[in-house]
Amino acid sequence: xxxxxxxxxDYFPMNTDFTQDRSVRRIxxxxxxxAFAVLFNALSYIYAGEGYFVRADTxxxxxxAASLFEKSGEGVKRIICxxxxxxxxxxxxxxxxxxxxxAEIQRQYxxxxxxxxxxxxxxxxxxxxxxxxxxxxxSNSRKSSSKAKDGEADEKRTKIQNVTFSTENVTSGTHSIxxxxxxxxxxxxxxxxxxxPVPPKGKNAGTAGEEVENDDREEEISPEKTETGYPSGRxxxxxxxxNTLQPxxxxxxxxxxxxxxNLLHYHIPPSEQYAIIRxxxxxxxxxxxxxxxxxxxxxxxxxxxxxxxxxxxxxxKS
Length: 318
Description:
This is DUF4373 domain-containing protein. The protein is mostly helical.
């Protein structure tokens, strides 16, 4: 009977100045001291589970909230999205695969598993250079790699010589990949991919902080056609419908999960959420909408209509 190979770590180090990190302090200032517990537990899930990443889905947020006091699943999700936005976790991999990881986490994982026969990592998730992988690979892999034939591997195989990658589906944290797959299938069956956003029509939306004129706003928010499967009128927009939307699979870097978290945080109505999602092309990295969120946070509640304000920012800078 073969022995089950251990993936995660029994413990992980944490810098003594973790709470002094600028990004961490910004999150704690906005969400309270409880944000530290959320971030610490997220790191624990990462290192104890796969060792270098965790899949951030609804089950993950609920599991994390269950281990904390006075934190709901939505509250945990909001804090995690801020951590992604501020660079604590890698934005690109979170947007593409819905996972939490970083180069520092992967570096620590490989360093802690150097004594193992092999450190398994998914090649698509790797953020480290070949030089770093060569220095952090297990000693057994280092010996075997010196005997490899010249020209045997291409660029991807070079990484595999340094670290044994695994592309198999695995469980993340305490929840099952089977449940996650079922949830993804249900979402895919009930949703359709939206077309990319169209340029605004009508008059200029005005400067930042000003309300968008009623004619333009109606055109931005109103759906295209009823035959697309989307609501036929403005009053029919619901949060449940917004939650079924999926970004297009065109390879463009996005932070769609972070976009949704921020829209919910500022209590923006579903109709305005839909307009912002389309005009930001599902939260493309570098879109003016992210600058708009930063301005909302710095305004300390002075901007009373955050949805219209974000639309005005996108329209002015697009």
